[in-house]
Structure formats: structure tokens, C-alpha cells
Inverse folding.
């Protein structure tokens, strides 16, 4: 059985519909797609017909926070395949990506990742794979995948929740995503580090590429300062070091947070102003951030 593809959505119905349409026309479709709907509009009326089942889980959300860990764990519990792929709804897999990840997991018990390429703003022919390759750029801080098969690594911090695959039993053995992470960022790095501690290698998979569609970003994510700070603190308490140092330093520079790399705790000083939030918004293509913030 092919792998189960797991994703989550809130008010990004057009992205989800595009992802499902792409998968429906792929030479290697998934066995199923499980979608955690985290509040917002009901995507059901807008979804295309697919040759595989699409199951929606009503997760809901707490205010403006998407419960990433809880939603992804719920998808994993609902999955029926032996292999699971977490893929964000704003990503499109190139043909052959799902089968390459699936074949890797059959051969090696690993946390498997694909190459991520970033598309600029504007309209794209999402079925023209050659054009997507030509228009997109790889992340300069990401590992270069081999031409085929996979390469094992212990650089688990390079795994991102937007595209990561596991054997389902291994994901369960690792405890899934830590639901103590209540909001934005950190839960994926936490799981990746837990995998390394458990002896599960990182597999950088050749022939596996996903295209990340452009959307506005915040650098640093000041609109999520409280949730990001709480998650960074949880990571520090568990692993003895800070994640997302680039973002934390950005908060310090704005006077929002008291923190240093040597500190045991980070303290929220104040909430950002509306002007600071808008100043941090980038509507032009800025797909890459400092590797320390990953």
C-alpha cells in the first residue's frame, strides 16, 4: 500500500484543492489523504474529485493558534498505511516524490525528507513540472539530495514539519509530536531531535522534491511572539539549548523579549504594536531565513 499523506488546513482551501488536484494526476498518488481542519471555513465544497479517499478531521483551534502537534498526531492516528508523510497544504510534490519517500522507508527506518524548492510570487502552471523547477529555488542552507536513493545524516535540525515522512510504528514509538508545544514553531525540530536520540537517522531522499508556494511571511514572526517564545522555552527545558535563535534575537532587537543564548529563560517584555507587525511582513519573495531559525 502506498503511504498516507497527512496535512492540515485553516482558510487555505485553495492551496488544499491544488494539492489534491496535483496528487490526483500524479503517477504515484497516496493511498489516502487525511486532513486536519483547524478551524476556519469548511473546505469540503471546494475539493476536487480524487482516485484516493480524502478524510477530513475536525480539529478546531484555540483563537489564532493552530494546534500543529495535536492536529498532526490526530492525522497519524487516523492513517491506515504503514508509512506516513506530513506535508503542508502549501506544498506540491513533484512526480515520483511520494514513491521515492515510500521506497526509502521500506528500506531503512528513518526520518525521511525531500528537497524543498521555493516558488516566487505570481501565478504558476502547477501541472508544468519543468516550469516549476525552472521558476523555483532551493534553500541554500538545506542539504543537497543525492541523484537517487538516499543519504543518511545526523543533521536532524534540517527536518521541517512541512515535509517529513516516517514509518507509522516509528512515529508512534517516538511519541509523535509533543503536544506541549501549543502554537507556532519548534515542535518539528523537537521530534527530529527525539528521533536522533532514539537512533533513527535522517534520510535525505533523492528524486523527492516538493515545491513550496509563496505566501506572506513575517521576519521575525512578531504576530506569534508569545507562542513562539513558549515553544522555544519548552525546547530549551527539554534539550538544554535554544532553537530559533535568529527569531529570538530579532525579538530582542525590537525590545519585545529579554533573552540571550546563555540564558535559561526568555521573558516576554511586551506585545508588538500594529506598526511593528506590519513592518515585519514581507509580501515579496523572501523564501529563505537564517538557518539558525529553522
Amino acid at each position: 500500500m502506498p503511504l498516507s499523506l497527512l496535512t492540515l488546513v485553516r482558510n487555505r482551501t485553495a492551496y488544499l484543492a491544488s494539492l489534491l488536484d496535483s496528487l490526483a494526476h500524479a503517477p504515484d498518488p497516496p493511498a489516502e489523504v487525511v486532513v486536519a481542519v483547524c478551524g476556519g471555513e469548511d473546505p469540503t465544497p471546494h475539493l476536487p474529485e480524487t482516485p484516493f479517499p480524502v478524510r477530513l478531521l475536525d480539529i478546531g483551534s484555540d483563537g489564532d493558534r493552530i494546534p500543529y502537534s495535536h492536529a498532526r498526531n490526530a492525522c497519524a492516528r487516523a492513517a491506515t498505511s504503514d508509512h506516513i508523510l506530513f506535508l503542508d497544504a502549501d506544498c506540491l510534490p513533484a512526480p515520483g516524490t511520494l514513491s521515492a519517500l515510500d521506497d526509502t522507508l521500506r528500506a531503512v527506518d528513518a526520518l525521511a525528507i525531500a528537497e524543498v524548492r521555493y516558488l516566487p510570487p505570481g501565478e504558476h502552471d502547477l501541472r508544468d513540472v519543468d516550469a516549476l523547477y525552472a521558476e523555483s529555488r532551493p534553500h541554500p542552507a538545506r542539504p543537497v539530495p543525492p541523484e537517487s536513493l538516499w543519504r543518511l545524516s545526523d543533521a536532524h535540525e534540517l527536518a521541517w514539519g512541512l515535509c517529513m515522512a516516517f514509518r507509522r510504528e516509528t512515529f508512534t514509538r517516538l511519541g509523535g509530536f509533543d503536544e506541549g508545544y501549543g502554537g507556532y514553531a519548534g515542535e518539528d525540530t523537537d521530534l527530529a531531535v527525539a528521533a536522533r536520540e532514539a537512533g533513527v537517522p535522517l534520510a535525505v531522499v533523492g528524486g523527492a522534491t516538493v515545491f513550496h508556494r509563496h505566501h506572506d511571511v513575517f521576519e521575525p514572526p512578531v504576530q506569534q511572539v508569545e507562542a513562539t517564545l513558549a515553544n522555544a522555552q519548552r525546547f530549551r527545558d527539554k534539550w538544554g539549548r535554544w532553537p530559533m535563535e535568529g527569531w529570538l534575537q530579532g525579538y530582542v532587537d525590537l525590545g519585545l523579549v529579554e533573552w540571550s543564548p546563555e540564558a535559561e529563560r526568555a521573558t516576554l517584555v511586551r506585545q508588538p504594536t500594529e506598526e511593528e507587525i506590519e513592518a515585519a511582513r514581507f509580501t515579496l519573495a523572501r523564501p529563505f531565513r537564517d538557518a539558525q531559525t529553522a
Remarks:
- The longest strand covers residues 202-212.
- The domain at 4-212 is CATH 3.90.550.10 (Spore Coat Polysaccharide Biosynthesis Protein SpsA; Chain A).
- Residues 14 and 46 are 8 Å apart (CA to CA).
- The radius of gyration is 18 Å.
